[in-house]
Amino acid sequence: MYEWSEEHRELRAEFAHWYETLGEGHLEADRDSGLPPRAWERVRASGLLRLPFHAEWGGRGLDLLSTMYVLEGLGEGCRDGGLCFSICTQIVSAGIPLQRFGSAELKARHLPGICDGGTITAHAITDPNGGSDVLGMGMTAKPDGDDWILDGDKVFVTNGPVADLIVVYALTDASLGPFGLTAFLVERGTEGVLAGADVPKMGLRTSPLGELSLRGCRVPAANVLGRPGMGFAVLDHVMRWEILCSFIVQVGAMQHRLDRCVEHATRRRQFGRPIGSFQMIADQIVDMKIGVETSRRWLYDAAEGFVRGRDVTTDIAIAKVLASEANVKSALSAVQIFGGRGYLTETGLEKDLRDAVGGTIYSGTSEMQRIRIARMLGLKESQT
Amino acid sequence: MDITQVIREFVVTEYLPDTPPDELEVDYDLFRNGVINSLDLLRLISWLKDHFGIPVDELDIVPENFRTVAAIRDFVDSALPAPAERTLK
Ligand SMILES: Cc1cc2nc3c(=O)[nH]c(=O)nc-3n(C[C@H](O)[C@H](O)[C@H](O)COP(=O)(O)OP(=O)(O)OC[C@H]3O[C@@H](n4cnc5c(N)ncnc54)[C@H](O)[C@@H]3O)c2cc1C
């Protein structure tokens, strides 16, 4: 298990007072949906958006593991799961690929705003045709002089309704298989770009999610991240960051929920005894503990391998499946352990459950992660 | 076995099980002919890292390095230390 230094702990403590502030009014915010007014201002002030970016652009220059360590604290301290999700999307969707694959000019233009939160970012991968099968997408980009012309629709764009800068993935040459995909930086004001309204959804309601339509949208060739045909490598890099960052936040949330359940099971009495003394309740809490510990270890271990250049394709997929499924199970157990109170909105636990369900779908469904693992083992499927 | 042959056998075993290795031309376009999809590419990269011990960086994942057996060989060649120092698994 990764050993955290005193410096790491101090770093996490430095942000601690922000966590609760960011989650203030989370129950009302969930009821109202959409990015809570004023919340983004607080997010910006917290400095969390700066974590993994170079000082040159106004970032904190933290490595991946230190960034995750702070984000785990965010998940533990902030009860607004939707806001946490939007924070992760802001960090990973455009800033991370820009820092890794962008030209010097693009970085200088956009990274300061991304670090500061003045530029809200999103990424648009999924479209009505291409979900799990990313390369089956309908969004195309065709060269035209020094520009590319993007055409198509995207769905499920987290932060989409409020984003200023969106990384759009488009097919540039369908016959090139995995090398037919290209990532473009698209500014909100570009002619032909239309962002839809926040779409109502099961959980993560404070994280706005919408559709995006691009019609004959002209984007300069200089806005390509990496090179044409490198979209798949860009996406793979971003997905690793997204999984590691957004699920370590959930590990923090699972830890908080575990502590809360232990406390409740110790205090709440039935049949003259604390409910935690009933083996069936203790069992559920023990499984919550196993879930949080396993997910945490897998995520940090995969992150360490990633940083060291180890091949972590399988590790990341395993970590994602474990963490997302453990989170759903933990949230469901918490509702059960709190009994009728768990079912009430005011306890915040039913919201946790609704938020958790999304985790088995976004960043690659559980099914797709399992397919990846099978393929990495050399197992083949006949049809896919 | 030389590198070209090792790569050719991997590609055939993994992606073209019905083709005898020697029939796979080194300049056969693996993308245009739909041999390698995105999951296959991930496995190929992982194999290159493991088998030859070369660090494949995201920035190396460009079509020129993977389009044909010859391209993969050239990529491996450029990433490997001088022949005398090689230790193939
Ligand atoms: C909260 C939330 C936030 C999101 N944010 C973003 C975002 O910011 N940007 C973005 O681009 N997208 C985003 N998404 C979209 C998400 O990435 C997709 O929903 C996901 O990739 C699945 O695609 P799909 O919805 O088209 O489902 P489909 O691909 O249609 O899948 C439907 C079902 O079939 C299964 N399935 C598909 N193919 C196979 C197969 N070969 N074998 C077995 N089972 C299979 C899937 O696992 C799933 O259970 C978000 C989704 C959610 C829920």
TrEMBL record, chain A:
Residues 5-117 form the Acyl-CoA dehydrogenase/oxidase N-terminal domain. PANTHER family: ACYL-COA DEHYDROGENASE, ISOVALERYL-COA DEHYDROGENASE, MITOCHONDRIAL-RELATED. InterPro entries: Acyl-CoA_DH_CS (IPR006089), Acyl-CoA_Oxase/DH_mid-dom (IPR006091), Acyl-CoA_Oxase/DH_mid-dom_sf (IPR046373), AcylCo_DH-like_C (IPR036250), AcylCo_DH/oxidase_C (IPR009075), AcylCoA_DH/ox_N (IPR013786), AcylCoA_DH/ox_N_sf (IPR037069), AcylCoA_DH/oxidase_NM_dom_sf (IPR009100). GO terms for molecular function: acyl-CoA dehydrogenase activity; flavin adenine dinucleotide binding. Belongs to the acyl-CoA dehydrogenase family. Residues 229-377 form the Acyl-CoA dehydrogenase/oxidase C-terminal domain. The keyword DNA-binding does not apply. This is Alkylation response protein AidB-like acyl-CoA dehydrogenase. It comes from Nonomuraea rubra. Pfam families: Acyl-CoA_dh_1, Acyl-CoA_dh_M, Acyl-CoA_dh_N. Residues 122-216 form the Acyl-CoA oxidase/dehydrogenase middle domain. Keywords: FAD, Flavoprotein, Oxidoreductase. Its cofactor is FAD.
From TrEMBL, chain B:
SUPFAM superfamilies: ACP-like. Gene3D superfamilies: ACP-like. Pfam families: PP-binding. Residues 1-80 form the Carrier domain. This is Acyl carrier protein. Coiled coil: none annotated.
